[in-house]
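hi!! sorry for the late reply, been swamped w classes. u asked for the two structures so here they r. pasted raw, havent cleaned anything up. first the sequence of the first protein and right below it the tokens
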Amino acid sequence: MANTLYPESYYAASANAVPARPALQDDVETDVCVIGAGYTGLSSALFLLENGFRVTVLEAAKVGFGASGRNGGQIVNSYSRDIDVIERTVGPQQAQLLGHMAFEGSRIIRERVAKYNIQCDLKDGGVFAALSAKQMGHLESQKRLWERFGHTQLELLDQRRIREVVACDQYVGGMLDMSGGHIHPLNLALGEAAAVESLGGAIYEQSPAVRIERGANPVVHTPQGKVRAKFIIVAGNAYLGNLVPELAAKSMPCGTQVITTEPLGDELAKNLLPQDYCVEDCNYLLDYYRLTGDKRLIFGGGVVYGARDPANIEAIIRPKMLKAFPQLKDVKIDYAWTGNFLLTLSRLPQVGRLGNNIYYSQGCSGHGVTYTHLAGKVLAEALRGQAERFDAFADLPHYPFPGGQLLRTPFAALGAWYYGLRDRYGF
């Protein structure tokens, strides 16, 4: 049987106390059945409940078990492919809609935290750090691009300024986004789940969806029960398996690795990141890091295509951490874990509808914390008959990975090897 308890991680060890939630053992009737209690599912459920829908959420393991409870905890705006790439793909009109939505997810997170008093160590400020003049040039054009869509909380950092923000001498400059920031991601998910229940929504854990009976009144079957609904939202992302075969061909689960140090103490923590911003570098295969509420350093990076769990996560990530911060050479690593995100060939999210009543959003491609919160709102709007924003995502073109499921992992790994060379040699 699959492991349905939280994997050992810093987040699971420091999670807020929550009630045990039952497995579904009955036949239930509802307006909307949401499959997956990660950010996409919880965000959808909250927006729907706030608009008067009856909602039942099915979770195969525990709330936030997947990427929502294991990620780097960084609030990063836009998508995994930026708005200029979208513009070239779909034209200015659709890009205009998607561009204005690119900064909404971070606002939704802050609104949720304030409205439902969610304790998740929310901190403002995220930094993109440039390792070369070429990357700095990209940040300058990214700032102009984002400002075109009304996003103004941005500041370019020269070499002197970035040293004031992060004690790492690798960077030639960077960009600070004050509407970015960081959170304890599992506690955000747990707080959103409590908000769902406070509005009358039901969440069943240890209740995997094993089969969807499609039709005018769809039914979702679990091992011991079923949910009859008017609508279904499929929000399983990298943990969906083959429940909806149409979605599996165009996406691939990928693993990313994270380590967490022992507590560093106030002085060392303040020395590393004086303003407590989170940081990600501008490499294609990027590293990212931040401080926790109790002054540990969380450091992540690396991608494992096909989502195998590497044998020794610390051996992969610790050298990256020490390259950025050699001053941590004697610091102990208390936690190391991996989690899967869902990659698409275009690196843009896949949003759509199967038949008239099964909606889905998946494939954030490593950019999920903000996008999933926006997706919940967009899916809820579509169910209420306001589909303009939903259609802007649904019309994005998506293609299967070359070579089908058998060859998608080696192809993607080959692409990553090429981009790794580009990161290293700057071409």
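now the second protein. again sequence first, tokens right under
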Amino acid sequence: MQSFLFEFYEFMRSRKKYWLVPIMLAMLFFGSLMILTQGSTVAPFIYALF
């Protein structure tokens, strides 16, 4: 996993693709939100937000 992150960082640095950072963070946030809501007691509270 660390090699992937390092390689991704090097790609962004060399090609000046810093706009990918917010997209990756949003995908990570929504992915973790989906994982948390599956079968947990927190799900009704998260559904109320949207």
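hope this helps!! also noticed smth abt the second:
The first helix runs from residue 2 to 15.
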